Amino acid sequence: MTRVGRPRSAAADAAILRAARELLVERGIGGASIEEVARRAGVSKVTVYRRWDSREALLAAAIESSADGLPGRTHTEADAAELDPEMTYDEMVTLVAAALPRAAEILASEEYRALLAQAFGSRFTHPEIMAAYWENHIVPRRRVAIPILARAVAEGRLPPETDVEAVLDMTIGALLYRLLRPGEITPAEMLDHLRRVYRQAGLLPDA
Asked: What pairs with residue 74 in β-bridges?
């Protein structure tokens, strides 16, 4: 949880989150203490605690900050599908298609993949981190995708008996499977994977 108080320094925020991401990648959750984060960021522990109440809250924010620019994180083009329920299916998927190249760059980055592994690895050892990641990362993106799938069913692009929630779960699972699999992946490969999975799920039109 972020504290409320005097105006925050955006530069300090960025430095703290960057330091936390670096330490998570280099040393894991156990090596990313408040003291180490503050030291690397060049700030005091008090400065860190003014912004985040706990180490878990800070590390969850650090993991989520690696996803800046992904649809669902901020009001990017693809988020318009959630904001305007009157859009047609074609209009919705056009916005999704436009957002995919940037999403592929982020998802393919070594930092993002390493932080994703840390988030999922915290499920039992640091459940607060995984809970915050789920609420701030997964849930908003589901809110973007569900109206698209519902519109696809309504317009006959998907069978009327389609279980939208199950389709979305399978889509997310396919993406996570690829991201957590060993080996490098280029942005171009990730973009191709995104397009193929999204087409199968009804989140993109047929090629």
From this structure: 71
Q: Please, how many CA atoms are within 13 Å of residue 176, restricted to the half-sphere of its CB?
A: 13
Using one digit for the tens of pLDDT, what is the confidence trace for 137-172?
Answer: 788 878 888 888 998 999 998 999 999 999 999 998
Domain boundaries, the chain: 10-62, 66-201
- DSSP letter assigned to residue 189: H
Residues of the chain with pLDDT > 90, as a percent, come to: 41
The predicted pLDDT at position 81 comes to 42
Q: Is 32 exposed, middle or buried (0-12, 13-18, 19+ CB in 10 A)?
A: buried
Nearest-5° angle of CA 126, CA 174, CA 111? Answer: 50
Domain spanning 66-201: which CATH class is it, in words?
mainly alpha
d(CA 204, CA 196): 9
Tens of pLDDT along 9-50?
Answer: 889 999 999 999 999 999 999 899 999 999 999 999 999 999
Amino acid code (one letter) for 99:
A
How far apart CA 21 and CA 59 sit, in angstroms, is: 8
- The structural architecture, per CATH, of the domain 10-62 is Orthogonal Bundle (1.10)
Other CB atoms within 10 Å distance of the CB of residue 193: 19
Any residues with CB less than 8 A from the CB of 10 and at least 6 apart, and which? none
